[in-house]
Amino acid sequence: MKSIFPDRKALFVILAAATITVMAGSIISPVISLMEGNLQGADVNNVRFIITTHALFIAIFSPIFGSLIDKIGAKKPFVFGLILYGLAGASGLFITDITTMIISRAFLGVGVAAIANPLVVLILNAFKAEECSKIMGWQASAASLGGIIWPLLGGALGMMAWNLPFGIYLAGVPIGFLAWLTIPDTANKKAVTTEDTDNASVLQIIKKKPVILAVYSLGLWMMVLLYTNVTFIPQLLAGTFGISNSLVISAFLVAGGIAAAVSAFNYKRTKSKFTYNAIAIIGLTLWTVGFVLLSQAVSIIIIIVAFVLFGVGQGMVMPTLNLWVGDLTNTCARGRMISILTTFLFVGQFLPPIIFNPIFSALSFAGVFLVTGIICGVMAALFFINLKRNGKRR
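Now predict its structure.
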């Protein structure tokens, strides 16, 4: 199938955008402890919402942008989102109180919602079969590389001033202009077919293919895990090991990012050997081991190993989620169905403080990570049961 991309410039823009979406929170994670002493009204608990609030608004606005994509195409929402992302994120450079900061993060979330959905839909519609697996792996790898580059840069800037990492968000503005110049506008170029009318209702799609709910749930939980790492590990390092240097903390996040990038880059090979269901089991098993290890984190090495295990699983699962939903959905409904996946992903980013703050208060870091590992193990068992029931089907 001929790609909708006339050349590789548009693909480069999409991969660049991928680096700044999933990692929107971890860019400033290395300075989370510094915010407690520099933002008026911030404390050890509410400061975590600076990293997670944007995710709630991504979840709210994703279905809106999903419907918009199915009606007018992906380009205009994509460009709008990139520019809003840059401006809203960079406003943190000038904010001095936690309330205003959290409001700015809400606008950042709207921007990410407008980026994340078109990004995946463009890839799903442009490529087929093995080529799509390869490009989706590249997209996940690019997101993971963002988890290496941006936290490192954020940590380095945080050593000079706590608010400088917010300037990184400005990268969204030039990427937005490049997207306007390079990505073709495919809106209204395709007539609605009989196949399309069968997929007009999201509820009908889910009713016909209920496994999609399991895919959404897996995506939600993966993001709960990612942002449990992002929000709790810096405080664990500072409180238990006395590590508060923002650049050093960012190095721990980089370990997981490198593992995820390598794993995702090789996703085409992984998919050629395993079904989607089997990949989900492998990822969940890796996470089970990693978080149980974290619950017994008596050394820095254990924390690094846990990050690597999580990263390998993330690099396998993230492209699987997008491709699995894409395979279960016809073209004209992909904007909506991918937007629901995006909603689940970013609800997952918002949930860690809500889920784990009470557990942290009662059982400290060990309890948070042990409960997380147990839930991963239960989910792996459920996907294994589904695999046995359905054999080698996707």
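Residues 352-390 form the longest helix (39 residues).
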